[in-house]
Amino acid sequence: MLLYDANLSPNLVEHLSDIFPNSKHVFSLGIQSSDELIWEKAYEKKLIIVTKDNDFNKILEKKGFPPKIIQIKRGNCSTSSVVTLLKENCETIIAFTKNPEAGILFLV
Fold first, then answer.
1. What does the DSSP assignment read for 14-72?
2. What residues does the DUF5615 domain cover (predicted)?
3. Of 10, 30, 42, 100, which cross-links 25 as Cys (Cβ 3.0–4.6 Å)?
């Protein structure tokens, strides 16, 4: 379902497995930091990219979606803060995944 970018903790997979099962972290796919490669893997595996990185917006503008993007618009914050943010927005995220006209979701 979700693909957590390198700028987010790999621990998110475990912390959120109850509400976002089958999610992955880029490290588990052997990807370190190539945004283009992350984009391609997300497309191939039908995953939604979760990131703090603005670079994916540029790719989305060029290529469109899928994959969809969830962008966390917070500066430095703890993993527990990200977990809380994603849990609090679970229903919004699920609705976003089902909306065929939405390509990006900003979470603040």
1. HHTTTTSTT-EEGGGGT--S-HHHHHHHHHHHT-EEEES-THHHHHHHHH--SSPEEEE
2. 2-105
3. 10
pLDDT digits (tens, 9 = 90+) for 14-48: 999 999 999 999 999 888 778 999 999 999 999 99
d(CA 52, CA 95): 20
Buried b (16+ CB within 10 A) or exposed e, 36-58: eebbebbeeeebbbbbbbeebee
Global model pTM greater than 0.85: yes
Q: Which residues have CB under 8 Å from 52's CB, separation 6+?
A: 5, 7, 8, 71, 72, 73, 74
Our count of domains for the chain comes to 1
> Structural domain of residue 17, as residue ranges?
2-106
